Amino acid sequence: MKMKNGIIAAIIVGMMCITSGAVANTNKKVERAAVSQISQAGLKSFTGQVKMKGATVFLETDKGNFPLEGDALKKFVGKQATVLGTLKTEGNVARIVVARAMEIK
What we know:
about 100 residues, alpha+beta, CATH 2.40.50.200, about 40% strand
């Protein structure tokens, strides 16, 4: 009986590994498709620390600080985030018009 239970447990673990591998592959395909759609939409990805000075929310990156324009960005203040958007330049100030923001955990 113990041998039978051990074999059943091994089969279940094997099936779980196969299933999780298929899910991981599906997730990678979805991520690649999303990146492709983002590129086609003309959006760019920016990563950095979201900060706030006065009423301005901005993204601090290794290439500089960029004011962010969009909805519900204050919830990202103090966090690392990746934002997808368009870089708009007016005079000597570049800002990011945010289409989507995601916290990096």
